[in-house]
Amino acid sequence: xxxxxxxxxxxxxxxxxxxxxxxxxxxxxxxxxxxxxxxxxxxxxxxxxxxxxxxxxxxxxxxxxxxxxxxxxxxxxxxxxxxxxxxxxxxxxxxxxxxxxxxxxxxxxxxxxxxxxxxxxxxxxxxxxxxxxxxxxxxxxxxxxxxxxxxxxxxxxxxxxxxxxxxxxxxxxxxxxxxxxxxxxxxxxxxxxxxxxxxxxxxxxxxxxxxxxxxxxxxxxxxxxxxxxxxxxxxxxxxxxxxxxxxxxxxxxxxxxxxxxxxxxxxxxxxxxxxxxxxxxxxxxxxxxxxxxxxxxxxxxxxxxxxxxxxxxxxxxxxxxxxxxxxxxxxxxxxxxxxxxxxxxxxxxxxxxxxxxxxxxxxxxxxxxxxxxxxxxxxxxxxxxxxxxxxxxxxxxxxxxxx
Amino acid sequence: xxxxxxxxxxxxxxxxxxxxxxxxxxxxxxxxxxxxxxxxxxxxxxxxxxxxxxxxxxxxxxxxxxxxxxxxxxxxxxxxxxxxxxxxxxxxxxxxxxxxxxxxxxxxxxxxxxxxxxxxxxxxxxxxxxxxxxxxxxxxxxxxxxxxxxxxxxxxxxxxxxxxxxxxxxxxxxxxxxxxxxxxxxxxxxxxxxxxxxxxxxxxxxxxxxxxxxxxxxxxxxxxxxxxxxxxxxxxxxxxxxxxxxxxxxxxxxxxxxxxxxxxxxxxxxxxxxxxxxxxxxxxxxxxxxxxxxxxxxxxx
Lengths: 403, 301
Description:
The structure holds 2 protein chains of 2 kinds.
Chain A: E1 3-7, E2 10-11, E3 22-25, E4 28-30, E5 40-43, E6 48-51, E7 53-58, H1 63-72, E8 75-80, H2 89-97, E9 105-108, H3 124-129, E10 134-136, H4 145-157, E11 161-165, H5 169-172, E12 177-178, H6 181-186, E13 190-191, H7 194-210, E14 213-217, H8 222-233, E15 238-243, H9 244-248, H10 251-256, H11 272-284, E16 289-291, H12 316-327, H13 330-344, E17 359-369, E18 386-396, E19 399-401
Chain B: H1 13-31, E1 44-49, H2 55-66, E2 70-75, H3 87-97, E3 101-106, H4 111-118, E4 123-128, H5 134-148, E5 155-159, H6 166-177, E6 181-185, E7 201-203, H7 206-209, E8 215-218, H8 234-241, H9 245-248, E9 256-258, H10 271-274, H11 281-300
Parallel strand pairs in B: 1-2, 1-3, 3-4, 5-6, 5-8, 6-7, 8-9
Helix pairs in contact in B: 1-5, 1-11, 2-11, 3-4, 5-6, 5-11
């Protein structure tokens, strides 16, 4: 029954703009106590105190190791999935049983279609009965628009939100880089931004027609942001997110890497104009949040030619410094990583007394080097780079990380 | 360690010119009766052709033999690449067996660039996906220099499937480095706007290009790379983009016609042009051996 006193930090509360030290008792935020005698004091000087990060997209491949990595990265809630095998009620029940008690809050995002193949609907009603609130279509949406329409209509009937990456899969076949003069010079097959534009138009029209709740993940182009605006102007209700890598990195880093497999991402990194458009959309709230898009892979998966490399990066630890580098302003950063993603999930997060103390204490000035082979930090385009911004403490479920 | 040659994208005009001069010198010596130059005796060159190839492979083999080096030939079907070994491991094995340089053709863009980073021996790119084919471009540049002299200010048109052509990409880099003007012409599906990133100009019809060109490089239609919706028919292609006899007659005096081969005769180029007086297609192939000798000598010196 020890109280925690988060002392001398700068509170970053995008919703209420509250300020002052934060007090936590038994994992719950409380009003300042009459006496702090016996309270454990956490030094938050020079740091920002913010609601814990909420990850809209990650793969907790190892519930224990990756759960711990999430906490070290400041994430107190993680949406896990979809993966091809998380496509049945049995698999969902099994995975719910493996949520680690001392880890971050986990929301399962099962596969919306069997094996994520985009052909047959998974048992969405059974998922909903298990408490699932959203399903996802994975790296690529179903290519058959009849399946997509059916999915939206069926999911709407169970109150499930559908997470979809807006894309036209056929236009992305073989693509490795954002289509444009730089990819042409590098000899890399391009992915056209038109894929995202068509994808947004399609999911927007089908969401409108079916009344489904739809969330567009992995937004990566300026053209896609404009398409979102257009869809909303037409009356579509659609939330959207991007990823830390797409917000903060671009094709220049892919080209500088010399075709390194560690830069294989789906969708590919955009160009500097895309980054600017994504940042502006986050600041204005047209894109609600930034996902880590964490996907740990064995080293061999990316120690091959770029075209044969599996897409993905380990991303929990680098999410905050990347978003910080792109947005700078503390309120914008915390909106992008905490309150914005929480709103997509229908959650609120903040400092109201009585709320669970899912909090993060951020060092905005600390520099650190991304290790080449540091735990699950193996597959990352950022290996060897020095980043600014680190997590001092994460508070989750009444515990403090690191200890 | 000698110099790798993974592409022309980042090569200086000086280095390209030195390679061409070297190739030209080797050609003179071979023509003078020195069929075998023992300069690389005792060296071994691994030829890793992981994509089908006959002429480039033979050309590298001949270049290696002429220099007195051993060939370690390697074919995908008989090798450990079919057993799941990574490319990096396969080539590390070749280096430990005693290969002094690796020549690689690979379907994946950037494969030679990755190898260059992990290997302690030089790497020569013999074609990586749609990216580069530097020795092909060097033999084209040598052929062009033979006929046009200095390439600065000359205009070279490259016609056809520019999108999927590693030959075109390497040639654009080499030609622009040497100061030539490059015009690209092809159907919209195969000559997209982003190719201006190569430092070349796009033209919308072949007929606009012909009167301005000092050389026309016809590219092979690569049906194996073209997706659906790329081209209507061979007849349509020939009508708008084929170098027919009538079109060739509109070329400037002294302009030459090139093709990296193999040719789709009657599609991108007619017989009478391929075998006609402006054609330097078979000279290109002969020059291939000399530029590859020069690249191998740079790598193994």
